[in-house]
Design a protein that fits this description.
Keywords: GTP-binding, Nucleotide-binding
Number of strands: 6
Order of helices and strands: HEHEEHEHEHEHH
CATH topology: Rossmann fold
CATH architecture: 3-Layer(aba) Sandwich
Organism: Paramoeba aestuarina
Strand content: 15-25%
Distance between the termini: 36 Å
GO molecular function: GTP binding; GTPase activity
Structural class: alpha/beta
Family: Belongs to the small GTPase superfamily. Rab family.
Largest sheet: 6 strands, mixed
Radius of gyration: 17 Å
Number of helices: 7
InterPro entries: P-loop_NTPase, Small_GTP-bd, Small_GTPase, Small_GTPase_Ras-type
Shape: globular
CATH class: Alpha Beta
């Protein structure tokens, strides 16, 4: 009986946290090298358009109201510059974001290596604060030019404690899936944080926790 009571209390607490999370913005930071398709992914998600050419020096914020699992959510996305511009702004967004979308092009091994470096940089900036991560292999429509295998991508994501997805901003394949999955992970980690330290440890397979 006591166990059932505790479970009911935990469920009530989780619902309160989820309600709070659903009513607030989800702040997502998109990281990755120039020319991996970060801006194209963001624009595809926010407006379902594909823009092949985009100014790589621009850093901008996009917002989209979208239902995730039937619950409305305002997703705020920072499309970061892939160059060394805006470093201080980028670092601040990493610190304050709930989740990270780390993007590389599956046609570029160097962008894959830099994606792993970006994750470690985020760990340093977060300083122990839990955060969710999706590792995104973009340009799946250019499979004939592939330099990074799906197996390598999945292995890297596992080492990060991140989810993994291959996308195509050109076709729209799995773009919504990537962003919506990150929202789910953000909701989950927020609920788990309210449940206590032991529950938080169990989240390490789905969320990146330092």
């Amino acid at each position: 009986e006591e166990t059932n009571k505790q479970q009911q209390q935990q469920q009530q607490q989780r619902k309160k946290v989820e309600k709070k999370m659903f009513s607030n913005n989800q702040k997502i930071c998109v990281l990755g090298d120039c020319a991996v398709g970060k801006s194209s992914l963001v624009i595809r998600f926010c407006s379902n358009d594909f823009i092949p050419c985009y100014d790589p020096t621009i850093e901008d914020v996009y917002r989209k109201q979208t239902p995730v699992d039937g619950v409305p959510c305002l997703v705020e996305v920072l499309d970061t510059a892939g160059s060394n511009s805006f470093i201080s702004q980028k670092d601040e967004w990493i610190r304050t974001s709930e989740g990270l979308l780390i993007v590389y092009s599956l046609t570029s091994r160097s962008s894959f290596e830099h994606a792993k470096e970006a994750f470690h940089r985020a760990q340093e900036l977060k300083k122990g604060v839990p955060f969710s991560t999706i590792l995104v292999a973009n340009k799946s429509d250019l499979d004939e030019q592939r330099e990074v295998s799906s197996r390598e991508g999945k292995k890297a994501a596992k080492q990060m404690g991140a989810s993994f997805v291959e996308t195509s901003a050109l076709s729209g394949q799995k773009v919504d899936d990537a962003f919506c999955e990150l929202v789910r992970l953000n909701r989950k980690i927020s609920a788990v944080m309210m449940s206590g330290e032991e529950s938080l440890k169990k989240c390490t397979k789905k969320c990146s926790i330092l």
